[in-house]
Each structure stands twice: as C-alpha cells, then as structure tokens.
C-alpha cells in the first residue's frame, strides 16, 4: 500500500529522490570533466547511505568536521579527511581510535597544536596525514602568510607519526552570484599561487591542494593548483544556493514539509515549522525571510518562533487553508538536517523510503559514567 | 574519582546545578507570593528530570508544544497542556493516544479546527479541555476579537467530547527591559479585560486564564484576571533574559563549554561551538553577537559557521590560548538544548551528573515502515 505526503506527520524533512540523483550526477560529471578529485563534505547529509552513493560515483574519500561524523562514515569509507583543527585531548583520543583500516587526514593551522597530535598518533600506532590550512580570504582559521604556513609544514615533517600531505583552504567567503565570482576567484588564485611557490621553493611540494565549497564549486577548475574539491551542500541544495545561481530552484531536493496551523491573523498563515525545524539562517543573497514555499517562492517565512513559522501572504494571491501542507525550501539545508533524526525519501507525492541522519549529534563524553560514579540528585 | 570541566569533550552544554536550583526556587516563590498557578513550559529543558523537580516544587502541571514532549512528560505528569493548535490528522491521533491517566488540555484559535479534534477525542474515549487562544499583541496565532474568540468557545461547548476551559495568550512580544514593560503590560491588561468581559456577559466565564513567558513572568501578577503562568526559559536563563533584566548574569545556569581551536587570525579566537551548537539567535535586547563568554561578557561570538564560532577580541585585553576552554552564555537557551542529546550537570568545576534531553526530536511517522513496505535504493 502506497503512502503519500498528505499522510505524513509534520514538520518533517523530505527529499525528492530524482532531484538528489540529478545533483549527485551533476557534480560527478563536473569533477570528471576537469580532472579534479571529489571528497564531499558529509556535514550536509550526515548519512552513510548518501555517502556510499557518492563513493560509488567516484568520490576519492569523505570530508568530516566532527569525530562523530568520522566514526559513522568509517563504516562505509576508509579514507577520511577531518577538516578541522585537531585541538583538545578528547578530540585527539577519539581521532586516533578510528578503525585501523581508515587513512586519516587532518588540517592544522598552528604548529603549537602539532606536538599533542604527534603524541596521540604515536600512541595510536598510526601515521596521520596533515594538510596545512591557509587563510585565503575567509578570515576564520588558517595560516595567514606563506612563512607561517611553511613553519607549520616543517613541524609536521619533524614528527615521525605525522606526514605533510598538502594545503587546504576554504573559500567560504565566496558566496556572490556565480556570475560575479570572477574577481574573487582571480584574487584567490593569485594568493594560492604565492603559497604554492613558497612551498615548492622550500622543497615541500604540496601533493594535495584541497578547496571548494558548493557556492564556488563549479568554478574551482579555474584555480590553478587545486587538485581536490570538498562541496557538501550540492547533494540537497537550498534557497541560498539557488539564489546565487549555483543551482536551479528545481534542484532543491530537500524541503521541510509543514502544516498550516493557524490563519487567524490577517495577511499571514502560520505553519508548524519554526526555528527548531528550519533554523534561523539568513539568505546569503538578495532576498528576505528564513525560507520560501517551494511552489510559491514569492511567499517567504518572514518570522519564526521555536515551533511556529509565519508565512507572509501580503505579496501573494495564494491563500493556503487551515490544515494544508506546504513545502519550505530552507535558506541553509545543512542546519535543517542537523535538527532532525531522519529523512523521508519521496518520488512525486509518494513516500518511497527513509534513512537516519546517523551522524547527527556528538555522542561525546562517553566515558563520563564511569568517571563520575553515582550521580547525586539535582 | 572526580571529573572536572577540563576533561570534557567539547562543545557540550553544561548546567551549574546551584544556579538551576536557585532559578527553580525563585519562580516557585514568586507564584506562591501572588497566588498564581505555575505550569512551566518544558520546551526549554525537554527533560523529565527537571520537570519532576518543577512539579515537586508546586507546579500544577506542564506545558508542551510538541507531541513528543507530551509523550515523554506523561511519564512524570498527568496534567499536560499542549499549548499548540491541534491541527493535522497525525497530530490529533498522537494526542488522543496519550496515556488515559493524563488530563489533556489544548489551545485552539479557530472553530474550523475543532470538528476534527472533537471526533479524535470521541474515538479516543476521552474528554479534551480546550482553551481559546487570543491574540494580545504577539500577532502570531490567536483569535483577534472577543466575537471571534466567543465563536470558538461556543463551538467547543457544542462538542460532547470537548470542554471549554478558559483563555490562553502568549505575550511573546513583550521583551523590553523589565523596567520598561509597564505600558505594554497595561495595554495587555486592557485588551484581556475586554475578552474577559465579553465571555462573562455571554455566560461563559473563563476558568483558567493562562499567559506569561519568562521575559514578562515577574510582572504577570499585575495583569488582572490571569490565573496561571507558563514560563520556560527561567530554569536555565540566557543572555537575552539577563540583558532585559528578567534575571541576573549570575543566574545564567546553562553555558556551552567550548575549546579554542585556532588563534591564527589576528584580533580573534575561534572556538568549536558554531551554529550547530549555539544556534543563530539574535540578542533580543541591546548588544551584538550570538553569545558571550561567561567570565568575559564583553567578548561576544561575533560570527558563526556550522562548527566554528569567532570570538571578537578587539574590545578586550583577554587573550585565550589555543586549547583553552571557554563557557559561552547563549542568546537563546531553548534552541541550544534542542541541538544536544544530553546535558552535563556541574558544581563549580566538578562534573556531578548528566541527564538526557529526552523530549528532543520528534519521533514522528513511526508507522511509516509498515506503510511503505520494502524501500527501493536511492
């Protein structure tokens, strides 16, 4: 017996399986065309099932941010890049306890963090590949000059349990419309060139040069020296990605299915998807609101409470009725996935499958029970 | 063997147990002093353990937003108010399947939603108490005039499985500094008076009149006719609550413990708590940023990525070192709790206990497996 959208309890994230397949195809074709390696970031889907499909279609490995993501993805992949500073004893311990079969790469931007990493790797009887993270305009993390980056690389080379594996950058500041990215990409290309030259001169050629998030992914082949890209969002896409032209509106595969729960206040309809279902991410492009209705993109979620979203109907003639279901394209899909434990897969209006967001959460401080002994009351 | 904060894996929400106890005491004393009923909203903590403590200290019942919250709380409480429009077949079915021992109250703002609710209640062999939700300035949900509200109440009275139980409002628009709330509260009092008069004239006296969220909680006794308050945030408090004067900075019981993972870019330190740990809630008061450092409130989280938070150090002489732990007071604590599966309870620097955020998530569409049959591949 088939199940249809109308029978689903809301709010719930649903994925159009045909769109998902198209998005996976498109990126696989792009990297093949340009001879780039694809190491997708799993932060967007946090699901081994999607990761396995990415690997089947040619991805060389996976990128993770959290140790939880790495542990879960080790079930389907033996080449994991934890693109995150390896700082903190608990994080290091968890890192070197990943299954032996997994080749581990991490990113570091500070020589001061490497001693502890080297010791952890040695105690874990493993060699850890380290990429030096450089700041190419994002101003978040990353060495800020070729000299500083080389200093980190030399520290890596001196540790017997670490191996210098290349350079990493994250062009997260490039969110302009795809057609306007030219000058930003040229600047990035020049900056990266200085690092590559300095490393070549120092006799430390960068084997892997990894960059690229979804907004700039389709033009990464224009950056000389880049060997690998790490987009995440492209599997599902979202309103921001569509608005900047990195995908079409019809490529938005994930929507939050919601129900209209009140039409009492004039000029608006209230849905049961609020901050706890949609997040409160801004649209990083022209436009307002925290999401838009799939079939009526001119209707946006203009206000949010924890469990309420306000649809502003003043610019539309569409009037949803009480109890009607609507599909919301979120501004930032990675945040939405992180809010749910499960995704529903649909084709048209038919529910076809479901899968867990297995790497959601952190599963941290697991050994605390034995450490704290018997808890007292509150 | 004791465990200390320094040993914890981050990011992780930690609660100062002494502050929590103080916050619970303070609200219990306030409602006792003014003869109000306290029906705390569980959306803030989503933990039966905290709810049980609230009930032990005199709460008359609990308020929930989601059915997941109601199901979990039914383990510790038999008087549950689902302060949410009962719209949607799946939601109704789950509502009437709550344990028989539970007295159910819901809020409704539209007569059109009541027929389905009445049928569901009858099929579930139970009587459901319904409060009429009125809009007193929030402009989210709620009947917008005494006539409309009376119309809803008369519909309730006509259904044998429903019982009119009073009025509900949510003064979520009152977030001004506590000292400036006077005019807003006076307006609210006048508006509520019109509804109460209309209901008394119609021979439908409102038994329960329930209002009040944490920002306005301490002045709810000034609103004539209010019998019950439903604050949630007061158990943990947050930066917004402190900033508007509804609590002191030292009453902020929940912080997100984070680790400094990069100091490479000048004038900032990067911590491992980003949007996926702190949310992206604005400070609903004077001030900037997405949270502030507990011991250095002048240092705010000025930018967020999914797993990175940027501490702006330009206005401070404090310079945290790589690997150092910091405690962040979030702007909006309810969103932070919703992002984690577990809370760590501490006294001073010692870890004392932990409890699950048991009502997090939605556990929805449970019967889907049997409905969809064997899933196809992606």
Keywords summarizing the entry:
homodimer; 378 residues; alpha/beta; TIM Barrel; Lyase, Ornithine Decarboxylase, Chain A, domain 1; 2 domains; eight-stranded parallel beta sheet; six-stranded antiparallel barrel; 12 helices; globular
Write structural notes for this entry.
Two copies of one chain form a homodimer. With 378 residues, chain A is α/β, with parallel strands linked by helices. The first copy, chain A, has two domains: 17-237, Alpha-Beta Barrel (TIM Barrel); 242-356, D-serine dehydratase-like domain (Lyase, Ornithine Decarboxylase, Chain A, domain 1). Chain A is built from twelve helices and 18 strands. Chain A has helices spanning 17-34, 48-56, 67-73, 89-96, 114-123, 146-158, 182-201, 214-217, 239-243, 275-278, 333-338, 368-372, and strands at 3-4, 12-16, 37-38, 62-64, 79-82, 103-108, 128-133, 162-168, 208-211, 228-229, 254-262, 268-271, 291-293, 296-304, 309-312, 325-330, 342-347, 350-356. In chain A, strands 3-10-9-8-7-6-5-4 form an eight-stranded parallel sheet. A six-stranded antiparallel beta barrel of chain A has the order 11-12-15-14-13-16. In chain A, helix 7 (182-201) links the parallel strand 8 and strand 9 (208-211). In chain A, helix 4 (89-96) runs parallel beside helix 5 and helix 6 (146-158) packs across helix 7. The termini of chain A are far apart. The model of chain A has no long low-confidence stretch (mean pLDDT 94). The interface between A and B is large, with 90 and 90 residues.
């Amino acid at each position: 017996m088939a199940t249809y959208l109308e029978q689903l309890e809301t709010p719930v994230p649903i994925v159009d399986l045909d769109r998902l397949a198209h998005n996976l195809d498109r990126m696989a074709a792009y990297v093949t065309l340009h001879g780039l390696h694809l190491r997708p970031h799993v932060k967007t889907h946090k699901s081994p099932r999607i990761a396995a499909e990415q690997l089947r279609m040619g991805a060389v490995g996976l990128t993770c941010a959290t140790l939880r993501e790495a542990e879960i993805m080790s079930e389907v992949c033996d080449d994991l890049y934890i693109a995150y500073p390896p700082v903190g004893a608990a994080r290091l311990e968890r890192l070197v306890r990943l299954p032996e079969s997994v080749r581990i790469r991490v990113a570091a931007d500070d020589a001061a963090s490497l001693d502890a990493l080297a010791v952890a790797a040695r105690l874990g009887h493993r060699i850890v590949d380290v990429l030096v993270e450089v700041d190419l305009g994002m101003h978040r993390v990353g060495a800020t000059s070729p000299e500083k980056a080389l200093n980190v690389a030399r520290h890596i080379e001196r540790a017997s349990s670490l191996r210098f594996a290349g350079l990493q950058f994250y062009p997260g500041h490039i969110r302009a419309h795809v057609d306007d990215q030219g000058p930003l990409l040229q600047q990035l290309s020049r900056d990266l060139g200085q690092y590559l030259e300095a490393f070549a001169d120092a006799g430390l050629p960068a084997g892997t040069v990894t960059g690229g998030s979804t907004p700039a992914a389709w033009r990464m082949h224009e950056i000389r020296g880049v060997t690998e890209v790490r987009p995440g969002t492209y599997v599902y896409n979202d309103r921001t990605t569509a608005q900047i032209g990195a995908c079409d509106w019809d490529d938005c595969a994930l929507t939050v299915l919601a129900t209209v729960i009140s039409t009492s206040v004039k000029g608006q309809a209230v849905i049961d998807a609020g901050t706890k279902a949609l997040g409160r991410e801004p649209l990083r492009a022209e436009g307002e609101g925290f999401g838009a209705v799939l079939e009526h993109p001119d209707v946006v979620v203009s206000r949010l409470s924890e469990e309420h979203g306000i649809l502003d109907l003043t610019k539309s003639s569409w009037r949803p009725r009480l109890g009607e279901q609507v599909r919301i394209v979120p501004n930032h899909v990675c945040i939405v996935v992180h809010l749910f434990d499960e995704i529903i897969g649909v084709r048209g209006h038919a529910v076809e499958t479901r899968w867990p967001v297995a790497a959601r959460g952190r599963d941290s401080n697991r050994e605390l029970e034995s450490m704290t002994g018997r808890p007292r009351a509150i």
